[in-house]
Amino acid sequence: MAAQTIQAKLLTGAPAWISSLLAMSRKELTIMVRYPVEFVASFGQIFLIVIVLTLAGLMFSPNGVQSGGSRQTSGIVVYGFIVFMFLSDTLWTIGYNVRREQKQGTLEQLYLSPASKSASLVSRVTVTLVWTGLLSVASAALMSVMLGRLPFHNLPLGAFVLVMALSGTFGVGFAFAALTLRIKEAGQTMANLIQFAFMMLCAPFFPFSALPEWIQNISRLIPMSYAVDSFRSTLMGYPEGFPELASIEVEVVIVAAFGLLMPVLGLWLYRREENRARRTGSLSEY
Amino acid sequence: MTTIADPSLRQKLSAALAETRLRLLNISRYPGQLAMEIIIPIIFAAMPMLLGRATAGADAAANFEANTGTTNYVAFLLIGASTFTIVTSAFWHIAYWLRFEQETGTLEAVYLTPTGSTTLASGVALYSAVRGVTSSLLAYLIGCVVFQVNPFDGQVLLAFLFVLFGLVPLYGVALLFGAVVLRVKESNALIGLMQWVVAFLMGIFYPIAVLPPLVQTIAKAFPPTWMLNGVRSALLGVGYFFETWYLDMAVLWAFMLFAPLFGFWAFHRVENGIRRNQGMGEF
What we know:
The complex is a heterodimer of chains A (286) and B (283). Chain A is 78% helix and 0% strand. Chain A is mainly alpha-helical. In chain A, helix 3 packs across helix 6 (117-147) and helix 4 (71-104) packs antiparallel against helix 8 (186-201). The radius of gyration of chain A is 21 Å and the shape is globular. The A-B interface holds A 35, 37-38, 40-42, 44-45, 48-49, 51-53, 55-62, 64-65, 70, 72-73, 76-77, 186, 189-190, 192-193, 196, 199-200, 203, 205-207, 209-211 and B 30, 32-33, 36, 39-40, 43, 46-48, 50-56, 59-60, 63-64, 66-68, 73, 77, 184, 186, 188-190, 192-193, 196-197, 199-200, 204-206, 210.
């Protein structure tokens, strides 16, 4: 009986959760390093995206590529791009991995193990986030070389906003994973659609003022818009007209609430969908 | 001993068209995916457009003209994004065709049929061209309507000819890339990288004159660069590389003769090497 209690303790609580997360993240890392071309390609891809978008933006400057662009424009594009990279990773990777397990036929087996389901979901994206962090630093450095020094202020608050935004998108990622269990292959198309909606409505590559007023009103209903706006405004040192959607205090409160509440909601949705899939026997169906 | 005669031209054509039909039928089951292919170029072109409008304000068109040769930045960016769709479709469809057959374990079985890989690749290329051109044409037209510019300004027929003649060398290059995927196997990563290399070289959102001279030379060795500049020059009058349309078209014709031959040669070389060694089925 005592042995059983000790065993049960080993399988529950924070240490068990962390242990599961580390083991699963390690597995993801092992898979990643087996594909070195993918590593190099993703790095090259980010650099090329940054260069293409920068050159496109410079076509609207009076002296084109010679002008080097304004610091404010660089700040808008680079910081928006960083938030976009982190958010896209968190948003799709979880659902995509659940789908991959389903296709490989290992999802049902995974659910028979006593490992934490939330650790399983978070582990899908942990390694990717570290990699994205490195890519963000590198792309910011590249942009600085191309366009001149980026505006860089209020790092602690900027980091807080980014962490809260990430936490919130983890929640959206859980909810998206739940949706993937339900709609299966259509999840990929849905992911693309959400990604492009995010690119337009949350304005990561341009100021919100570029959008028509009615679209700005829709943007104001999406917490991630406030994450993009507050993150770049904070790091740019609140130049005139920034933040655009609300005062910085209001934006930080919205992003913090999003970061604290969304993971709980997302996990609840995922558990609900998972239970439904287990009851109907569709967990391994694809 | 039973011998199988080589298929006639008619039989080859029939097999290629069957491959095209199979793929079109397959994709018709995913209307959402098709809709996304039309929406993506519009959103993609909208990014620099909105950024430019926000940062340059009332001077956006004038600044753009000083850098590119046209005030019509909406059409310039939409043409770039739409042509990019055609190019990425070619790369994705050819490379993913091979990879998909490999992953599902059917590539080796396909190679046991009397139909040659050239025939099947031609069928896939036809399917890809139909899908890519239709999506990009619709994206351009819808984008023009959304951003309120006339899509039929300039020499529309000439622009269409540049697209048409650009397709053949494009699929030659895509086949070359297919050979790389067959060898390296990591198609997703390679395609992801390649499509941005292509975007950078062909100048989807800027004229290639802004690139360093060495990069410009590399870009001009790449057929889609001529296709895109031809379309832009025909519709917007931004200027042909050789001043007149027929000289630029002649370059595309030269690519048209050379690129497919080189593509098939490289593909067969890799293919034969793999068949002699580990076999096509391994991935």
